[in-house]
From TrEMBL:
Protein name as catalogued: Transcription antitermination factor NusB
Binding-site residues for S-adenosyl-L-methionine, renumbered to this chain: 309-315, 334, 361, 378
PROSITE patterns, per the entry: NOL1_NOP2_SUN, SAM_MT_RSMB_NOP
Xref: Pfam families: Methyltr_RsmB-F, NusB
Family, similarity comment: Belongs to the class I-like SAM-binding methyltransferase superfamily. RsmB/NOP family.
Tree of life domain: Bacteria
Residue positions of the active site: 431
Stretches for region Disordered: 1-36
Organism encoding this protein: Streptomonospora wellingtoniae
UniProt keyword terms in alphabetical order: Methyltransferase, RNA-binding, S-adenosyl-L-methionine, Transferase
Domain SAM-dependent MTase RsmB/NOP-type: 208-496
PANTHER family hit by this protein: NOP2 YEAST -RELATED NOL1/NOP2/FMU SUN DOMAIN-CONTAINING (PTHR22807), RIBOSOMAL RNA SMALL SUBUNIT METHYLTRANSFERASE B-RELATED (PTHR22807:SF53)
Length: 496
């Protein structure tokens, strides 16, 4: 986005009553360059207090009255700096006499914002440096503003490709390290994603890999997809809205989900159906994994459904709508009261009032064993499947994060199987492709039990190509670079 397209903020301060005469009370001037200041404040909050940019940025834009080009610039700077943080840090480290780790934490967001403008936007270099240094002087002082000026002038001497050729490890000698720097992902995540894709992270390319572009060729396509801006996908809640309603508001029908629609631009809240909670923002893969659970054939009763980890309620709302159409009932359980409130709002007014919400720990449930015909376990996970939408997650997660979650994931799946009646079905879902959180959990639980068997999940999503994964293709794995969705995992298990 060109800096020249943005409106000027150098107008005179507004005065109370508009007179500006002597004795009139002068209102404080609007902050200079509110877009960059907002981006900086979000990056500081993400860095210092683990805030989530996708939650904080929209509220800041509303509070500060940013619209149009200013809002677009703040959004581009925030998400661009977060997505490319690893790459920019490697470049900044090469432009600083000492280590980047020695730079004050309040200065780092300024440098990353400047690097993003210089290396990945159409903002003229002189304007990018000038505006960023001005921001630095306002938020961290004149002395560190001079430091930012010196560093960013060095950054601006080369383009992004030239810099990565200098700072990234050689691809042939260290393919994982090379992709880590070029595509801005921690090394361990590159290795985990390569393993999930079935590629050898040590760099030995198979014949197929060589034809496709060398070792880790598909891993590279996935990493690149994580750094692209994702589109907005909507879900029409069954029984409350139809895809045609969303199309009438400017959306386009989704490629795979019969309840989905793509919004090409604009704020989803501008659609009447979204404001009325008859539709919501929901990734297409999230819709499809819930839909797959409802497609499995059952013998006998099909009236009691359970969403064991329902917060914040997206899948619960879809299931409640589908349950109501079949004269079934959904119990949506969530352990955190605040998130349970979000679930209750999401399932409100579902057909036949089919959705009910309860605050409950599904590892120690209040319901009896064998009580449900269908059970969804959307387990807490690392969230590595949603790095397009939550880019900061890649910098927060560690290999230990996945290891620490595994006991909880196994416990939830095991208790879900207890909750299912004989002949019932359980869907285990994660928004992560990490093998330890997906196949590892499912196969570990199945090895300990004799009362469950896996179904071929892809058979229940026949409209989606290339999703079968795991032994004999028994699981489903969505991918951003293949399907344009989050990397959702699904396993379907039948209770014997």
């Amino acid at each position: 986005m060109s800096d020249r397209s943005r409106p000027s903020h150098r107008s005179s301060p507004r005065t109370n009553g508009g007179s500006g005469e002597k004795g009139g009370k002068t209102a404080p001037p609007a902050p200079k360059d509110p877009a960059r200041r907002t981006a900086y404040d979000v990056l500081r909050a993400v860095q210092d207090r683990d805030a989530y940019a996708n939650l904080l940025l929209p509220s800041m834009l509303r509070e500060r009255g940013l619209h149009g080009r200013d809002a677009a610039l703040a959004t581009e700077l925030t998400y661009g700096a977060l997505r490319r943080q690893g790459t920019y840090d490697a470049i900044l480290d090469a432009c600083i006499d000492r280590s980047l780790r020695s730079v004050d934490s309040e200065v780092l967001p300024v440098l990353r914002l400047g690097a993003h403008q210089l290396l990945s936007t159409a903002i003229p270099p002189h304007a990018a440096v000038s505006a960023t240094v001005d921001l630095a002087r306002r938020v961290v002082g004149h002395h560190r503003g001079r430091f930012a000026n010196a560093v960013l002038r060095k950054v601006g001497r080369r383009g992004l490709d030239d810099w990565t050729a200098i700072v990234a490890p050689d691809r042939a000698a260290d393919p994982v390290g090379h992709l880590s720097v070029v595509h801005s992902h921690p090394r361990w995540i590159v290795e985990a994603l390569a393993a999930a894709l079935g590629e050898d992270a040590r760099g030995g390319a198979s014949g197929a890999e060589a034809e496709a572009g060398g070792p880790l060729a598909e891993t590279e396509r996935l990493l690149a997809a994580h750094n692209e801006r994702p589109g907005v996908t909507l879900v029409a809640k069954p029984g409350r809205a139809a895809v045609e309603d969303l199309v009438g508001g400017g959306a386009a029908p989704a490629q795979y989900s019969p309840y989905g629609a793509y919004l090409p631009e604009g704020d989803p809240a501008q659609l009447r159906e979204v404001r009325q909670r008859r539709a919501a923002v929901q990734d297409e893969a999230s819709q499809l994994v819930a839909l797959a659970l409802t497609r499995v054939g059952l013998d006998g009763a099909d009236s009691r459904w359970l969403d064991a980890c329902a917060g914040p309620g997206g899948k619960a709302a879809l299931l409640a709508g589908l349950a109501g159409r079949r004269d079934a009932r959904l119990l949506a359980a969530e352990v955190q009261p605040a998130r349970a409130g979000l679930v209750a709002a999401a399932v409100e007014r579902s057909p036949r009032d089919a959705g009910r919400t309860v605050v409950a720990d599904s590892t120690r449930p209040a319901w009896r064993d064998g009580a449900f015909d269908r059970v969804l376990v959307d387990a807490p996970c690392t969230g590595l499947g949603a790095l397009r939408r939550r880019p900061e997650a890649r910098w927060r997660r560690t290999p230990e994060t996945a290891a620490n979650l595994e006991p909880l994931q196994r416990g939830l799946l095991s208790r879900a199987l207890d909750a299912a009646r004989p002949g019932g079905v359980v869907a285990y879902v994660t928004c992560s492709p990490h093998l330890a959180e997906t196949r590892g959990v499912v196969e570990g639980v199945l090895a300990e039990r004799s009362d469950a068997e896996p179904l071929r999940a892809a058979d229940h999503l026949g409209e989606v190509p290339d999703v079968a994964a795991g032994p004999d293709g028994r699981y489903v794995q969505f991918w951003p670079h293949r399907h344009g969705t989050d990397a959702m995992f699904l396993a379907l298990l039948r209770k014997r």
